[in-house]
Amino acid sequence: MKFSNYIILIPALALLAGSTMPGCKPGKAGSSVDADAAQKVYVAPGKYDEIYTFMSGGFSGQVAAYGIPSGRLLKVIPVFSQNPENGYGYSEETKPMLNTSHGFVAWDDSHHPELSKTNGEDDGRWLFINGNNTPRIARIDLTTFKTTEIIELPNIGGNHASPFCTENTEYVVGNTRFSQPLDNAGNDVPIDSYKKNFKGAVSFVKVDKETGGMKLAFQLIVPAFNYDLAHAGKGPSHDWMFFTCYNTEQANTLLEVNASQRDKDFVMAINWKKAEELILAGKGTKIPVKYAHNVYSDKTHSATSTIEKETQILDVTKFPGLVYYMPCPKSPHGVDVTPDGESIVASGKLAAVIPVFSYKKMLDAIAKKAYDGMIDGNLPVLKYEAVLRGEVKKPGLGPLHTEFDDKGFAYTTMFVSSEVVKWKVDNLEIIDRAPVFYSPGHLSIPGGDSKKPYGKYVIVMDKITKDRYLPTGPELSQAAQLFDISGNKMKLLLDFPTIGEPHYAQSIPAEKIVKNQVKFFKLADNKNAYAVKSEKETKVVRTGKRVDVYMTAMRSHLAPDNIEGIQVGDDVYIHITNLEQDWDVPHGFAIKGANNAELLIMPGETSTLKWNPYQQGIVPFYCTDFCSALHQEMQGYFRVSPAGSKVPIKFSIGVNPVTQ
Ligand code: RUQ
Ligand code: CUA
């Protein structure tokens, strides 16, 4: 038996590897670009793009915002990684954002941006994104394009199937990629006791309707598989959440071979509404855990980090009716729900068909107990034929992800055969296929996973770029490709490079975001403990070895600009308030030799740089952002004296004016 599995498996793996070999790659794209492509992506100087695309930065830990159709990079939003460009994770105010139960973790691997939804439509309020490595979910406020909250997830390894939100953003949900023993379970166990001791956990993070504030509501303990991706139901399937899982073989070594044995793995369907009811009825078990919850406030311009000590769990094997498994061929990866909420599309990485499951048939199969065995004793596996609506036949090789347009079509990426395939949702017939360059992962259509897709474009994120750009040494730029999908045939319009490795992106009509933009922070509302609201209030205060500098920035000077009485070995905190009350007038701040980054202080905001002078001397500081005609004049000096020196604290600006 085993032997025949290998025969099937080996050519499949060879194909996967083959996709990176020059001999197998599709021809150059030059000829396939229409003459009017340039016109379609040209956004005239001074004009806005039509769409925002929020793309994960992959192993950069960040999110990037692009304008579509131009492909212009608008902003890198720091999330899980320190960003020297603006001091995120370096300033005293933002360091707590990167706190975890493991201490300060200033990097992560971000995969799936998820826009908040109201009635199943993107509402443009928040963007959630997962940290895959040290499991976290972040929330970005789209009025400021700042990360305002990060919650760590206990009990799991690899927060990959995350964060996917329910139809009204009741919850954002994340699931385990690397099953492991629960945190409190006495987890010094042999790795090969995987089947006995390891578990998966699905985290349900409640989202406050008004503020977006997140709270870990409960975790469902599920069998120890690798959970890969997820999507919530909508409309009729509102109460359900669907997850792909692979490694249902429960291998713990050489997964490449050992987790590809079975012909079918599963889509796991969870009735989250029922789980919520059980939790409300007090059926959860409280267990001790440790996880960080970090919140940034636009009032204090500061973050706080709290270590939480408890969560509640439900073991799904003890509550019939919560979880069902639908067999899905060949190590499924993406799972996507059609805009009407009736069909669930799952993509097996090694499969030759795309199965489309019917929500209605799933309910029927549950009612009729059309089971094909049980997992972990009492979690029903539903019969494949009983839940299947149909299969998209011969779609290509290596289907990964699907999104939907506004005209009843689905678009699926084919990793191995390097193409996007367009098919009709109602009859599952293939309409068109377009080569992409090369090996696409996710794709994004504006509103493409929502109830009301906007359509018009698909942005495809490629895993390999090869010969698409000017070479840049051993590592080539990552790439996205833009297609026009307004007509019958997909048309390639543009290649553009991305930051990190873009996994997934979500795209939204710009008007939903533009109207809510914050242009500056009101100085009067600034509640930072070290804010000063005018130059008159600036001061320097010594308390033992701690020195607090209350400084202001304004075109075109920093006040004070001469500071004496600092000593070697001091802890100097420079708190800078940007007094400007105008759009797009940040000031920067940097100190020679500081083992830190710069600050970039938005109008009306206060930020703090910590500095430890280690040698005596005169140390210049300056504004780093070219803010005005006299920006180069925006500078000052610290005088650092030896420890114990008698030089008093002294600060000034403009005391010795030069007169002719
Ligand atoms: S993944 S290329 Cu990290 Cu979303 Cu599918
Ligand atoms: Cu402020 Cu340059």
TrEMBL record:
Signal peptide: 1-22
Enzyme Commission numbers on file: 1.7.2.4
Annotated SUPFAM superfamilies: Cupredoxins, Nitrous oxide reductase, N-terminal domain
Tree of life domain: Bacteria
EC main group: oxidoreductase
Annotated compartments: Cell envelope
Pfam families xref list: nos_propeller
UniProt KW Signal keyword: yes
Keyword Magnesium: no
Keyword annotations of the record: Copper, Metal-binding, Oxidoreductase, Signal
GO molecular function, one term: nitrous-oxide reductase activity
PANTHER family associated with the record: CYTOCHROME C OXIDASE SUBUNIT II, NITROUS-OXIDE REDUCTASE
The protein's name: Sec-dependent nitrous-oxide reductase
